[in-house]
TrEMBL record:
SUPFAM superfamilies: alpha/beta-Hydrolases. Pfam families: Abhydrolase_1. This is (R)-3-hydroxydecanoyl-ACP:CoA transacylase PhaG. Transmembrane segments: none annotated. InterPro entries: AB_hydrolase_1 (IPR000073), AB_hydrolase_fold (IPR029058), Carboxylesterase_BioH (IPR050228). Residues 29-253 form the AB hydrolase-1 domain.
Amino acid sequence: MRPETAIVEIHSQYKVHTEFYRNPEARETIILVNGSLSTTASFAQTVKYLQPHFNVVLFDEPYAGQSKPHNDNSRFISKETEADILLHLIEHFRVDYLMSFSWGSVSALLALAQCPARIKKAVITSFSPILNAPMMDYLTRGLECLAAVDRNAVGDLVNGTIGKYLPGLYQRFNHKHCSSLDEHEYLQMHFHVRQVLNMDSRCYVDCLANVDIPMLFINGENDEYTSAEDARHFAKHVRDCQFITIDNAGHFVDVEHKDGWRQTQDAIVGFLKKNPATKPLARPLAADYQAVAV
């Protein structure tokens, strides 16, 4: 089913491209938060297993994807501003659940820390509160090629690190995507990496003590950058949390192989639905490859 698209204006300052995948039988809505450098296309496989159960909302940040033409992109957008945009979209679409991927989880956690009344549960995938040695190396190398706007180096870095377990065809499309962005997107990502490196993790972790909704953290067994072990440190900060590790998966838990797709589907749908019924059949990984980015 094709989504309903719209441009949502926020605070008369930003215009955000949104995609609403309607399920006429669904009573609840979930919003998905992209990782860095990615767009709504990165959630193509995720929508397939969520739409049979929910209405699904996707969006591009003002500087990315189909939002770009509607914004001047002359100023960098902070993670705090991204969190504010997310809170606005939650109200606009009357969202019940939130799911974030990778570095999109920073703005997601900042938003959740404000305890939006509509959100009942949240799923955080491929993220941890610890910048371990592999992640620090990845971010440090990323700063260099982003600052230089070295498009080919960005694509090589992503595929050689967090994307190393992606199938070959995904890697080719991912490299094409990461190496063909506008200059302001690389500089925006450079700004975000510097912000994250300088941001005390307590800015988006300690404040989660106020969050009283259940949260599920999903990480890949083979992901050394946001490891399942590191993710479990969230238990120190979140009252009601669960952890699931996807077998034989790296950073991109639901696109690397079919079993990872199924495990992730079962984990998320089972968590969000109190009494999961027999699930409608959703089509697993197919030949419609999209860039997945970071």
